[in-house]
Specification:
Blueprint: E1 2-6, H1 10-22, E2 26-30, H2 33-42, E3 47-51, H3 59-69, E4 74-79, H4 83-91, E5 96-100, H5 104-118, E6 126-129, E7 132-135, E8 140-143, E9 146-148, H6 152-163, E10 169-170, H7 171-177, H8 189-201, E11 209-212, E12 216-219
Parallel strand pairs: 1-2, 1-3, 3-4, 4-5
Antiparallel strand pairs: 6-7, 7-8, 8-9, 10-12, 11-12
């Protein structure tokens, strides 16, 4: 595995690169956003570790630019307790976040998880409801034949609902069902992402993704 570390903390990179190398992961350093984007455009990486706080272009803007033309897995490195950066990072398309200071062992586990999720399935799997088509292997979604852009967590939530269409999934269990039990950025995290998901699907009225008061969410089998 080859990862790009976009972080201006040279000492952190040295420590991290040494640990990753011991576990079969090669790391390349980019001390700022400009050089990070240039490195990503010039080479192939399996994932990006991206610091939020950097001089010049901050990590959130770098993440936004990465998502303009790449689906490479991105893990944001955020300040401990900074919930805003975590939420914004996920909404911009980051796949995960780790708060500093972090355990290198935990980071490696998160890194392997996001890379594993990003690997295409051996068989092409598609799910459909109403006028929505989900291509599981490519992680692409179309509405009435037109592709829409979802963040990583929005796609995972939609897929979890689609796989259990017609069955209510409790709000507190939905992240786990989506394989995102690692995400915990506030009590209303699921509600916020479901709201954004409905907007992108053109389902603002909640006819496809229904809210079951006091229980959770359910995807209508016929798409509403």
């Amino acid at each position: 595995m080859h990862v790009l570390v976009i972080d201006d903390d040279a000492r952190l990179f040295e420590l991290l690169a040494s640990y990753l190398a011991q576990n079969g992961v090669r790391a390349t350093a980019a001390p700022d956003g400009v050089r990070g984007l240039a490195a990503l455009g010039a080479g192939a990486f399996d994932a990006v570790l991206l610091d939020v706080m950097m001089p010049g272009i901050d990590g959130l803007e770098v993440c936004r630019r990465i998502r303009l033309n790449s689906r490479v897995p991105v893990i944001m490195l955020t300040a401990k307790g900074d919930e805003t950066d975590r939420v914004v990072g996920l909404e911009l398309g980051a796949d995960d976040y780790v708060a500093k200071p972090f355990s290198p062992r935990e980071l490696l586990a998160r890194l392997r998880a996001v890379v594993r999720r990003a690997q295409p399935a051996t068989e092409r799997e598609r799910l459909a409801f109403g006028d929505v088509l989900i291509d599981v292997s490519s992680r692409e979604v179309e509405v009435s034949g037109k592709r829409i852009e979802l963040t990583a967590i929005e796609f995972d939530l939609l897929l979890a609902l689609a796989k259990k269409a017609g069955r209510v999934i409790a709000r507190e269990a939905l992240l786990s069902e989506a394989g995102r039990s690692d995400v915990s950025v506030g009590e209303r995290t699921v509600d916020v992402h479901i709201s954004h998901l409905r907007q992108k699907l053109g389902d603002e009225a909640g006819r496809a993704i229904k809210t079951v008061r006091g229980a959770g969410y359910v995807l209508a089998r016929d798409g509403g």
